[in-house]
Design a protein that fits this description.
Keywords: Electron transport, Heme, Iron, Metal-binding, Periplasm, Signal, Transport. This protein has 126 residues and is mainly alpha-helical. The chain is 37% helix and 0% strand.
């Protein structure tokens, strides 16, 4: 019985640190890690608790405004009907859709519009 209990305790101790580690996309982890190797959650979340969704202004501080993103992802061939629409300039929402509706940092990102449509954005950072 003690052997089983010790094995269970050891398993918990080995899994606990991995479960509490911050899961981030590599391209953000690089720039959010300080000199001591600690991820600076406040860079996106501010002083709020970590589970708070970052404000759009936090995304915009590095990536530019919604209008800037729409211009960067516009394609000259968007005039045709067979081309997928600009993901940052929605026909329904314009440039007002919050970044976090599609882009997730701590889990897989999704295409919000695919709740009703079937768009594929192969260059989307997941």
């Amino acid at each position: 019985m003690f052997k089983t209990l010790n094995t269970l305790l050891l398993a918990c101790l080995l899994v606990a640190p991995a479960a509490s580690a911050v899961q981030m996309k590599d391209y953000h982890k690089e720039i959010m890690t300080n000199d001591n190797g600690k991820v600076e959650c406040a860079a996106c979340h501010g002083d709020a608790k970590r589970k708070t969704i970052p404000a759009a202004s936090q995304c915009e501080s590095c990536h530019g405004s919604s209008d800037d993103m729409a211009m960067q992802t516009a394609r000259p061939e968007d005039a045709g009907h067979d081309v997928e629409p600009n993901p940052h300039d929605s026909l329904h929402y314009g440039t007002d859709l919050p970044c976090t509706y599609c882009h997730q940092e701590h889990k897989e990102s999704t295409v919000y519009c695919n709740q009703c449509h079937e768009f594929e954005y192969p260059d989307m950072k997941r």
